[in-house]
Amino acid sequence: MKILIKTFFSFIAPMEDFIIESDDNTVKFKTRNKKWVKKLHPNDLFSAPMFIRCSFCFKGKIDLNKFILALNESFKDFEMFLTTFKKDNNNDIFICYKENEYKQVLEIEDRPLDLIENSYSKVENLVPTLKTICPIQESGISLHLDGLKMAAFKLSIFENGFCIGYNINHACIDQTGIYYYFKYLSQLYSFGREHLKLKKPEFIDYKSYENKEFQFADTNEAHEYAKKLGFYYKEKAQDNNIFEKNSILFLNFNLREIDNFKKESNETTLSKNDIIIGIIFKLYTFSSHLNENQDFNLKYISSVRKHGNIGEEIMGNIFRYNGISLKVGEIRKMNIIELSKINRKSVNSITIDHFKNDISWFNYIHSLDNYGYFIPTIYGTNISNWNSLDYNKIQFGSSTPFALKTFCRARDATNYLSFDIDKNNNKTITTSISVPNDSIERIINFSKDNNLFSIK
């Protein structure tokens, strides 16, 4: 439904800060410091091909006037969200302001007759469209960044709720950084700048964390180190024909049953995430295409902020990849608790020194062809857990998010752990997995046997 956007606005802020395009329901924001520029570090370049496309979903009301004013205020501190990627003659990548004065970054969709419960299930309807981004950004991945926007947003307003969708490049910001931005934005919305309690964002100084004594003699050494991170470089993926025939399953993890499972097992040191990782290990090794002696590698992403006393206000990719490699036969013999303990031991072993060594690896490989690290195979998967943060601190008025909708990346052997609510209004953790067809029946039976998860 097309909204008459001009009827929504009675702004007290300087209108020259933004331009309302009533014809297509978008808002352009004024770029300020034209000299602002940041060169991307190799650590950020590694993540830069990815655009994070998600949507926070809320029940309650949103004031459109206040939201646009808050967004405008947020860009004064999060300047990078109005930037564009630029490549120079040396092939270095920067984010900076282009010469145009305004940046079109907000799309608005008003659906006053629709209930949010009936409208939020498809994330592709909740994130920025071609009104504010180009087709390659809409795909979520681009190896060529020159000229692309850093970020765009979409506000969808329903009768009894709203969704804030975003398309943000992974360069310079990780999931904690995005979480912090939305906390910041929500405080600006709810209380105004004069009552803002959060620190202004700063960029991490990667050089201060570099371990200059940790170096690589050649590419083979770099590939060997990559295995510790869960990356296995492949010139060609011989199993790709199998992987491309996989089916996608969407899973809901029952948090109450997982809590009961932990209590019954007397394993109080294990987290819900540990149990979920144990389950995912099992699900991926049901296939007959894997033999007992093959290695299966589960790679997960873990923040290192607490290990280095790095605050949420520090922007950057402040995490490490960590790989757990086990024989398929071992995984099949182990139960969920045993696999969960292996994950907990791996997580507990991470230190800030690992992050410092990783930076040396990023520095070494950034000029190499990295594509081989990302070829999906049936011998591994990548877990990205987005549930470790307190999303109740993102509060627009009295509304906090009941769901974080993410795009399915299972086709790329990546599993996002996100959150939603079930039909009984209970919180669930959700993900999607890509598995060979011969394992689906066993996965269904496994879900019925333990009741820890269900298949949509």
Protein described:
The structure is a single chain. This protein is of the alpha+beta class and 456 residues long. It has 2 domains: 5-203, Chloramphenicol Acetyltransferase (2-Layer Sandwich); 218-312 and 319-392 and 403-455, 2-Layer Sandwich (Chloramphenicol Acetyltransferase), CATH 3.30.559.10. Helices cover 27% and strands 26% of the residues. The protein contains 12 helices and 19 strands. Helix 8 (272-284) crosses helix 10 (336-348). The radius of gyration is 22 Å and the shape is globular.
Structural class: alpha+beta
Provide the β-strand percentage band: 25-35%
How far the N terminus sits from the C terminus, by CA atoms, comes to: 30 Å
Report mean pLDDT, rounded to a whole number.
Answer: 91
CATH homologous superfamily designation of the largest domain: Chloramphenicol acetyltransferase-like domain
Strand order of the largest sheet: 1-2-7-8-9-4-16
The name of the CATH architecture of the largest domain is 2-Layer Sandwich
Number of domains: 2
Tell me the major beta sheet: 7 strands, mixed
Radius of gyration: 22 Å
Question: Helical percent range?
Answer: 25-40%
Weakly predicted, low-confidence segments? 1-12
InterPro entries: CAT-like_dom_sf (IPR023213), Sec_Metabolite_Acyltrans (IPR051283)
Keywords: Transferase
GO molecular function: acyltransferase activity, transferring groups other than amino-acyl groups
